[in-house]
Amino acid sequence: MSIGLFAYLLFGGILGGLLSTIASMASLATYPFLLSAGIPPVYANTTNDAALIWGGVGSTVASLKELSGHWKQVWFYSIFTVVGTALGCFLLINFPGEVFEKIVPFCIAFSGITILFSGKVNMSVQDDDTNNWLKVLSLVSILIVGIYAGYFGAASGVLLLVILNFITEDDFLTVNAMKNLIGGLSSLVALLIYMFTEKIYWLAAIPMAIGVLIGSFLGPKIIRHIPVKIIRITIASLALIQAGYFAYTAYR
């Protein structure tokens, strides 16, 4: 690998790490960088997972303050995400790449639109039966997000952020920190599966992983100084732009 390509993928990783913690969209940077490096779409996805596990490491270290007292919640929600991720990996392995490429734009667009409506919903005003059903529906939704994360992953963090905002009463920074750690565990599970079933371009994954680690460590420190409204608008805008790009490449 040339020094130029190494630096290019390193930069893509740093950008992805920042987007992961600030805008929940690491793959919207890292995935196109891998594609532009000449890696086929499905293998770009598996290589992407190999790099993104370090995003969970960097963001967790930088967010220990926000995660304090919330570890039980994180592990509980992670169970549903990890199971869903394993199912999503199975779908990716068994469905052709053409289907994969055509579904992606709609998933990303939906994620971006959803974040605009991800404000707090006070479930305490509901009766107990309604509240319980909403909690069950939310857990099923986390499972579905895990499936999507295993199948593609781009903007899956946005969906997870929306759901966690709905079912918890924690502030945005805490929910975002929980999302980052759960997303990192999801990427780790996907990587373990793909290591034995699919091809991973390790020479591309290594520089990108280094960049992701750097970016994800810096992200939580930056996000503490950005208004939540601006973050949500930024997330939605980036998602819709990226969805348009992927739709163009898939259907032209």
Protein traits:
TM_pro_TauE-like; cell membrane; Probable membrane transporter protein; membrane
Quick synopsis:
With 252 residues, the chain is an all-alpha fold.
User: What percent of the residues sit in helical stretches (DSSP H or I)?
Assistant: over 70%
Number of domains: 1
Q: What is the count of DSSP helices, taking H or I runs of 4+ residues? A: 11
Total beta-strand segments: 0
Q: Note the run of SSEs as H and E.
A: HHHHHHHHHHH
Mean pLDDT: 83
Low-confidence stretches: none
Q: What class do helices, strands and sheet pairing give? A: mainly alpha
Task: Describe how the helices and strands are arranged.
Blueprint: H1 3-22, H2 27-36, H3 41-62, H4 64-67, H5 71-94, H6 97-115, H7 128-151, H8 156-167, H9 172-197, H10 202-223, H11 228-251
What does this protein structure show overall?
It is a multi-pass membrane protein. The two termini are 32 Å apart. The mean pLDDT is 83. Helix 3 runs parallel beside helix 10 (202-223), helix 5 (71-94) crosses helix 7 and helix 6 (97-115) packs antiparallel against helix 11. It is built from eleven helices and no strands. It is globular, with a radius of gyration of 17 Å. It has one domain (3-247). Helices cover 82% and strands 0% of the residues. With 252 residues, the chain is mainly α.
